[in-house]
Amino acid sequence: MRERTSSGKNFVLQTCALPRKVRRMNRIEAEENLRVIRSLMEKATIYRAISAPTALVGGLASVIAGGIILVQRQMAFARGGAAFSERWFLMGWGTVLLLTALANTWFLWRDARRRGERFVSSGMRHALLAMVPALGCGAGLSLFFTRYGSGFALPPTWMLCYALALLATRGFAPGSIQRLGWAFLVAGFVALFVMTRSSVPLQDDAGWRSFPSVANLLMAATFGLFHLIYAAFTWPRGGGKAGAN
Amino acid sequence: MFDFDKLDKVIHERGRLGIMTLLATRPRWAFQDLKAELGLSDGNLISHLRTLHDAGHVAIIKEVQDRPQTSYAFTPKGRQAFADYLTVLEQIVKAGKSAS
C-alpha cells in the first residue's frame, strides 16, 4: 500500500515537473542556438586588415629591399664613394611601405567587391581607427629620429609601433594577426637591444658602415620573414577564403 | 509557455541556421565563402540553400566578374523570418529564466 502511494506520488510529481522540464529543455536549446548564432556572427565580422597576398608582397618586397640596400652600400664603398646614407635606407624602406600599402588596398578592394560590400566597410573603419594612433606615433618618431641623427632607433621603433597597431585590432582581428603583433613586439625589443648594443655615432661614416647591415638584417628578418610565415599560414586553401585563425 | 512549434522549422536546423546567420552579416555571400565558413560539403550546402530558396528566404545571384560566381542573399521575407526566429528564441530564454 505504502509502495503504491509512493509510486503514485512520484507519478504526480513527475507529471507536474514535465512541463517545467520541457520548458527547461527549450530554454537550453534556445540558448545553444543563440550561442551558435552569436559565434557565427562574430566569426563573420572578423576583419583581416592584412590579407595573406599582402603579406606575401610585403614579405618579398622587404627581403628584396634589404638585399638591394645592402648591395648598394657595398657598391658605394667599393667605388670609394660616399658612405651609405640614411636617405637610401629611408627611401628603400619607404618604397617597401608604399608598395605594400598599395597592394593591401588593392587586395582589400578586390575582396570587398567579391563579397558585395563597400570598400570602406565598418570593419575597415574600426581597423583604421584602432591602428592610426600607433602608426601615427611611428611616423612622428621616425621624423624625430631622422632629424636628430638617431637612425639606429628606426627599426625597433617601426617594429614596436607596427606591433601595437596590429594588437590594437585584437577585438575583431583573427588570432594570426594577434600572433604577428606579438612577434613584432618581442622582435622590436630584441632589435632595440641589438641596435643600442651596436650603436655607434651615425653622424660619421664609420657609424653608417655598420648601421645598415644590422638594420637591414633586422628589417628583412622581421618585416620580410615574419610576413612570409604569416602568408604561408593564412593563405586561402581549398578555394575558400583565409581562415579566421 | 513557449515551445519550438512557434519556430520556423525551415530555419531551425543547424546548417540552415548557420546560412541564415551568415546572410544577416553581409549583403551577399559567395558559395565558396559560405562553404569555407560553415565547413559543409558541397552537396549538403546546396541542399540547404535550395530548401531556403524554396521557402522564399534566400535569393540566388548569378553573375560573371572574373569568372561565373553564384552568391546568395536574404530576401525581405527571409530577413523578417530570421528576425522573428531570433525573437522567439529570446522569448523562450526569457520565459525559461523567469520560470526557474
Structural notes for this entry:
The complex is a heterodimer of chains A (245) and B (100). In chain A, α2 packs antiparallel against α7 (205-234). By secondary structure, chain A is an all-alpha fold. Chain A starts with a helix and ends in an 11-residue tail after the last helix. Chain A has helices spanning 2-44, 52-78, 86-115, 122-147, 154-167, 175-197, 205-234. The radius of gyration of chain A is 28 Å and the shape is elongated. Chain B is α+β, with helices and mostly antiparallel strands. Chain B has helices spanning 14-23, 31-38, 42-54, 76-99; strands at residues 29-30, 58-64, 68-74. Chain B contains 4 helices and 3 strands, in the order αβααββα. Chain B has a 3-stranded antiparallel β-sheet. In chain B, a hairpin with a 3-residue loop joins β2 and β3. The A-B interface holds A 19-20, 22-24, 26-31, 33-34, 36-37, 40-41, 43-45, 113-117, 236, 238-241, 243 and B 1-4, 12, 14, 17-18, 21-22, 24-30, 32-33, 35-37, 65, 69, 71, 73, 86, 89-90, 92-93, 95-97, 99-100.
Q: What features would you highlight for this structure?
A:
heterodimer, A: 245 residues, mainly alpha, disordered C terminus, B: alpha+beta, elongated
The helix tally of chain B amounts to 4
- Roughly how many Å apart are the termini of chain A? 65 Å
Q: Would you tell me the overall average pLDDT of chain A?
A: 78
Give the number of DSSP strands of chain A: 0
**Spatial ordering of strands, largest sheet of chain B:** 1-3-2
Distance separating the two termini of chain B: 13 Å
The helix content of chain B is 55-70%
CA-based shape of chain A: elongated
Helix residue percentage of chain A: over 70%
| Total DSSP E strands of chain B | 3
The Rg value of chain B, from CA coordinates, equals 15 Å
Let me know the largest β-sheet of chain B.
3 strands, antiparallel
Mean pLDDT of chain B: 86
- Oligomer state equals heterodimer
Q: Tell me what portion of residues of chain B adopts beta-strand conformation.
A: 15-25%
Order of helices and strands of chain A: HHHHHHH
Elements of chain B, N to C (H/E): HEHHEEH
Number of helices of chain A: 7
Please state the CA-atom Rg of chain A, rounded to the nearest Å: 28 Å
